[in-house]
Amino acid sequence: MAIKKQKGASLIELIIVIALITTVFAYLLVIINFSLKKAYQQESFDRATFLAQGLMDKVRNFRDNTEWFSGGLGSLIENTDYYYENGSFFLGTKAENGFIKAIVFEDIYRDANDNIVDTGGVLDENSKKVRTTVWWEVKGETHQIEFISLFTNWR
Predict the structure, then answer these.
(1) How would you label 126-153 residue by residue, b for 16+ Cβ within 10 Å and e otherwise?
(2) C-alpha span between 131 and 92 (Å, rounded)
(3) What is the pLDDT of residue 38?
(4) Which of 23, 55, 38, 45 is nearest to 132 (CA)?
(5) For residue range 57-84, what is the model confidence (pLDDT) as tens digits?
(6) H or E segment at 41?
């Protein structure tokens, strides 16, 4: 007994194969889109990290090349946003290439054992806590990276 091949069977097989190939390509496009999005997010994060660390380096260079109390870190206002430009600090934040940068200086207080404390203690006029922050937005979602360091009047 011979099996008869139906004429419509090859058309149905062709439609199934086309549907499978289309599905595979659709999944590949989703994966590629996801990968590109993640790569862009990582690039933004890396750039923000570079900018925040660069701000910290500028603070360090400024501290090293100025007198602490006479126009140096000891003379800056606490808990105020600054930006750095051309060797000086200015009030406010700075937008650059889709990123917003800020530097904030905080006073340091120490207890009787010279440990840093959050409340109470005595003002250490020769130390500043420095916070460099970079913000950026991707598709309506705000991201931020922050570095914190302690600077002292080492002279």
Answers:
(1) ebbebbbbbbbeeeeeeeebebeeebeb
(2) 14
(3) 85
(4) 55
(5) 999 999 999 999 999 999 999 999 999 9
(6) helix 9-64
